[in-house]
Specification:
The strands form 2 sheets. This protein has a 6-stranded mixed sheet. A 4-stranded antiparallel sheet has the order 6-7-5-8. A hairpin with a 2-residue loop joins strand 1 (about 1-5) and strand 2. It has 7 helices and 10 strands. It is of the alpha+beta class. Helix 3 (about 95-115) runs antiparallel to helix 4 (about 170-180).
Length: about 280
């Protein structure tokens, strides 16, 4: 059986004569995108991540001189977010738990009033209280205590408030309201309430990319694409090898591989394993 396995920017070419795939001789297609040592690393990943009896390559019936090409593909679609989420850390200090709770609750009311005025419903504001602890508190405007002397411990209440913005046109108003009262807030996390449509589009993009790659491999091997024999979103796609292949070949990190929200656009990523059969021209 002849198998060409391509993973991200790296590709493995294995040839065996009826032997289990794990026992096949493995070499590597060279190219400027493959750094020194990448072959040995990918060989280890293939061995450890599923190159064994009963894998996809062993289940396909191939004709004379046909080759099974196993590809991994990634499709990405960016869609305008319809939801944004802020998380604000709150705290309150006091000489005893009651004072700490009072200070914390006053700050919480201030934040709640600010975001309510910016158009956020009370039901979209949720606070989870962490608890009370006794901690030494330093006053930055006072000189430090003498060496070896610690300030008197005070009670401390901490919590996190989650604010869900269901109309992203209000994000800037909410952010401005929080910053105006000095709340410690970062940029929101954007998301989609429903991602079925962008997921279908990302899947189509991944399939198109796989088909394009298959044609390129076939051309470089002086062969042609005969048929598509397998598509999977399960373990057939070697996720780790695909990610490392992108990182090696294009200098990307994991966050770029999976996509991060940018400018209010949310990426929907679909990872596929796609197998084709190649034959001589």
């Amino acid at each position: 059986m002849r198998v060409v396995r391509a993973v991200g920017a790296l590709a493995a070419f294995a040839i065996s004569s009826g032997a289990p795939l794990a026992q096949a001789r493995v070499g590597f297609i060279s190219g400027p995108e493959n750094p020194p040592g990448a072959g040995m690393m990918l060989a280890g990943m293939l061995e450890n991540l599923g190159a064994s009896d009963g894998g996809p390559a062993a289940t396909q019936v191939l004709g004379a001189n046909e080759v099974l090409l196993e590809l991994s593909a990634r499709g990405v679609v960016r869609t305008r977010a319809d939801t944004a989420t802020f998380r604000v850390n709150l705290s309150g200090h006091g000489s005893n738990p009651t004072e700490a709770h009072t200070a914390h609750d006053a700050r919480l009311r201030q934040i709640t009033d600010a975001v309510r005025a910016a158009g956020i419903a009370q039901s979209d504001i949720e606070t989870s209280r962490e608890g009370v602890a006794g901690l030494p508190v330093f006053d930055v405007e006072e000189p430090p205590p003498p060496e070896g002397e610690m300030p008197v411990p005070q009670s401390f209440v901490a919590s996190m408030t989650t604010i869900v913005v269901r109309d992203v046109s209000k994000v800037e108003a909410v952010l401005a309201a929080l910053r105006q009262i000095g709340a410690p807030v970062n940029s929101p996390r954007y998301s989609l309430t429903e991602d079925a449509a962008p997921r279908r589009a990302a899947r189509a993009n991944a399939l198109a990319a796989a088909r394009s790659d298959a044609e390129a491999y076939a051309s470089s091997l002086s062969m042609r694409v005969v048929r598509l024999v397998r598509v999977t979103e399960r373990g057939g796609f070697d996720l780790m090898s695909g990610m490392f292949g992108e990182m090696f070949g294009q200098g990307r990190g994991p966050s770029e591989f999976f996509g991060q929200p940018e400018n209010g656009q949310v990426p929907t990523v679909v990872l596929l394993g796609v197998d084709f059969v190649l034959a001589p021209r």
